[in-house]
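Researcher: Let's do a round of design. I'm pasting the structure tokens now; please hold your answer until I've finished.
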């Protein structure tokens, strides 16, 4: 009996260890589904996003702000019952999440980032998020960006190569928390980003979503 309990405890420990490194969510939209891996280096953002997803908080919210070659933004609870033409982007959950900047987590295409207002600590919104589409850059453009937008901070060589070949939004690095990455369904970002929008960057055709935690963590 003791052996059986020990084996069961060991299995639980192994399962917990493996799944801790494989937390994923799926974002379901009319334009397809994206699978996003949440980073363990940003545990506060990861756990908050998982909590809201399990509560189905994001169901029927919209991608309410879409800017081609930049990003698609959602998570505003006020968007659930918004009328055509309503200005969105001010809804929240009443708390913020402390910034969790990591040098190796950056705004490449498909990055999941936390929206925020202009608060001095750069704390994130408790619910609003964006997914980067971005664009590709040349070395000259990145050099200029370092001087004008990044305060002289140098973009690491490996990240430069990704910005040159895959694209992204490097001017956001170390200013907004990146806490995940799209690993499947990158084309969905492009489809949503291509939609026509109004003067407030809201798509003329609503883009509702559902977010679910991926259950099959061990083998996905």
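Researcher: That's everything. Go ahead.
Model: Designed sequence:
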């Amino acid at each position: 009996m003791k052996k059986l309990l020990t084996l069961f405890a060991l299995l639980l420990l192994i399962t917990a260890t493996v799944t801790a490194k494989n937390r994923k969510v799926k974002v379901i939209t009319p334009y397809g589904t994206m699978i996003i891996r949440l980073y363990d280096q940003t545990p506060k953002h990861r756990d908050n996003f998982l909590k809201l997803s399990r509560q189905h908080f994001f169901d029927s919210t919209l991608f309410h702000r879409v800017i081609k070659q930049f990003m698609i933004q959602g998570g505003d609870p006020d968007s659930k019952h918004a009328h055509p033409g309503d200005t969105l982007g001010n809804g929240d959950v009443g708390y913020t999440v402390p910034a969790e900047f990591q040098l190796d987590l950056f705004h490449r295409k498909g990055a999941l980032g936390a929206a925020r207002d202009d608060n001095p600590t750069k704390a994130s919104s408790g619910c609003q998020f964006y997914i980067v589409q971005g664009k590709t850059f040349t070395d000259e453009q990145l050099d200029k960006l370092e001087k004008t937008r990044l305060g002289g901070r140098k973009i690491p060589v490996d990240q430069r190569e990704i910005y040159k070949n895959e694209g992204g939004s490097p001017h956001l690095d170390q200013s907004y928390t990146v806490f995940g990455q799209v690993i499947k369904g990158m084309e969905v970002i492009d489809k949503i980003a291509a939609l026509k929008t109004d003067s407030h960057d809201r798509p003329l055709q609503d883009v509702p979503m559902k977010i679910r935690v991926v259950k099959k963590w061990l083998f996905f």
